[in-house]
């Protein structure tokens, strides 16, 4: 039976449930007792039968050539012919020839009868449909249905003559009539629950539909009913077409299938994660663009900044300075006025006097837009992480998944040749991963080898931590040096503007070089450790790259908020927020450029050099850990910069789009699949977790600290003249309370919910508690499933034990009976 049908039956059917199965044969002894009630199929072993069997063993002459014994299990059901000398190739449980009684019991077990007799199945479900029709009015419970969802073939013979064939046809006709009288939902559930092949189910369904159409043509149906019938069919077809259209709109679906089919789920997880980040940035861009950028662009404010500065070398694209310094890209361009439909009210005036017309308080909107964007992003991340935890950390044994993949995973609805090729490649790669996981065994090593491996791992971690610390110190001192250089240039007039713009790229170039070169050193150290499992190697690489990225970002945040924002006058900055936004723009752009260089030199040129110079067919393997941490690093920069540069998510969107197509082309041309297939069942969960806690949490802390504690610039931005950015909301609440005394409670609510940090800590604690409880629920479900699987294995062992004991008892009786027969023959001859 098709896998899709089986899964649908498990989800939809209201009749096939485990409790109903427990009604059938809750013990093996009950099964044997049930079989003894059928006189036509189960023959009780009486002494006379044993005597005849003993005579049958003595009388015929036994030859060594070809003596066959016919073991007839039941009348017209199953006959087994076996050679006495040649061993049979049967079930693994059967290590020797079982007795006829044992074989009868085995043949009548529910697991052995499915699919052997269509007549039994049709008769069983004919009775079930009849009972369903009779009890449909009262909506009966499951206990009112027949005890077994798996029919037994006891009492039914194989269709060997015309009588049996006519009987089966009568049963089929009754089943079709009963199915026709059921409702559409019950009919679908009943067909899905039948243990028949897909072709037989389709045949039954066509018979029911043809008979229904014939009856409809014979009966006179009112026009209203026909119109209603056609409208329902049209709406259903339209809904299915809409769902199919939405499924076809999934971004990069075909490309992801090609990547999965050729390189496996590990590389696929990188591209899926990239698509997730793209959706996050699209959301940020829509929120900031619609609420901040568009209103500010429409208002056409008159700024007193000098916008005549231009870069003759066009370096403003790389540095973000020059023309871009006074554009919608940065914080300093936005004003602190309340925008009106016909005019604008400056911040110094009473805003309530300008309430005529449609007003738009830019400081308040700027504050709540950033707050809302981060809050919704946090909710989406927590939900995605909880959902990913539930999907990835469920209990799933590789052997069971392998059986499911082999027998019930092919989608027979796919008929297009290109789609079949993609599905076949994807299916084959997944089978390789599952087989590799099943065959993977832990190597038994001695104590000395374990000590040596431990020493190698400790040495590798010391090297990685030491190199990370050295790079972090280098970034710290170099940024301090450039900070002092910028301070000295602010006090002395310099005519070389080109050198000044190029010097702005020094720190981003150094940081991007470290992010490019040090992961290569980590890979060399990992090669020295010689990990057996590719998944463990990826997790170790991710942890080391994550430590590097987080340390560098921590130093940079201290440089921006601790040095630049604390004393902007010493650097000659009128708007330190725009300067920080320019820095984040430069870091984001340099990161993209160095990724391009790494793709070209590290993958393309290395592949050409390896094939042309070294004469090797081997290509480099896609480095999942480094590429994923580069995505998290870039996304953290985008979250940090959305406060200082509202259009920075648009830059990140362009970067991610270029990255996807560039990485896909490079992957197909320059890389090869891993030599050791491995299944990345938890990679997406780990990526989302790393994106949430080190990335998003760190960016949220920095942005919250900036809005709460840092003093805004006095000459630019929507928060000029305020003590901090939170004060914009506080002033707005007090103005509302002054105009309308009934809203005085807003001031208290704002002070307790927004200004008080306890509320933020409570919200963060609630999110963490939700994640913790969800993980505990998943862990409890995993333990329950493990216990159930162990119980199933124990019940299987119990059945094997009982069958073996039954065979032993029969063999002992069999040995005793010939002795009695022989003694009776001797007594009769003596007499």
Automatic annotation (TrEMBL):
The keyword Transmembrane applies. GO terms for cellular component: plasma membrane. It is found in: Membrane. Belongs to the TMC family. GO terms for molecular function: mechanosensitive monoatomic ion channel activity. The chain crosses the membrane at residues 267-294, 365-385, 454-478, 504-525, 546-565, 585-609, 683-708, 758-775. Its main location: membrane. Residues 575-680 form the TMC domain. Pfam families: TMC. The keyword Membrane applies. This is Transmembrane channel-like protein. It is a multi-pass membrane protein. Residues 424-451 form a coiled coil. Keywords: Coiled coil, Membrane, Transmembrane, Transmembrane helix.
